[in-house]
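ASSEMBLY PREDICTION REQUEST
Request ID: AP-0331
Submitted by: J.K., bench scientist
Number of chains: two
Total residues: 229
Priority: normal
Notes: Please return the full assembly, not individual chains.
Input sequences:
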Amino acid sequence: KNQVEQSPQSLIILEGKNCTLQCNYTVSPFSNLRWYKQDTGRGPVSLTIMTFSENTKSNGRYTATLDADTKQSSLHITASQLSDSASYICVVSPSAPGGYNKLIFGAGTRLAVHP
Amino acid sequence: NAGVTQTPKFRVLKTGQSMTLLCAQDMNHEYMYWYRQDPGMGLRLIHYSVGEGTTAKGEVPDGYNVSRLKKQNFLLGLESAAPSQTSVYFCASSYRQLNTGELFFGEGSRLTVL
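STATUS: Completed
Returned structure:
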């Protein structure tokens, strides 16, 4: 069964510190892996999209990495800010026929940045 | 920029009542989707549409119906609401299929069924 597992479930860090969120997936084959940020009470917003052949993608202080061999991805946040407090969702797009409009969502990691 | 707009944002229903959630997008996207988000779970696809006049079932379609009479609108209906349908519902749209296309979400509609 195609699955996307994220860890940790929740994380608290101090403002200015770095952190790394993990995503393990069993979806295979896949077209792309995405990371979304979801603020409380809002819809998810895209941070990065990586195809299966890409290893890293950055968006400002957010850097996503992908290891297709181990089926792992990580999202690294540098110099965290209070506005980084949100849920971060890992999403995988299967590439099998019939799956071109299906995404597999992880349950998310809830990050709290404290002053 | 309006993007994807959902109405209503909040609704409380009694078991057995019906309602319709409206999603409107102004980006001229072909593809539209309805997801539900429950605590501790990833978003799950309810129904989707690949163009005006088309609909297709997603992962959890039971108890829901949809219509796409106009390209910019995608309606999600609950004919007889059940407590298990208490959730946050997200509409999304994309210009292309999701194996290559970016997905844009609305702000969500929180539904409580008593």
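REVIEWER COMMENTS: The two ends of chain B are 35 Å apart (CA to CA).
SIGN-OFF: pending second reviewer
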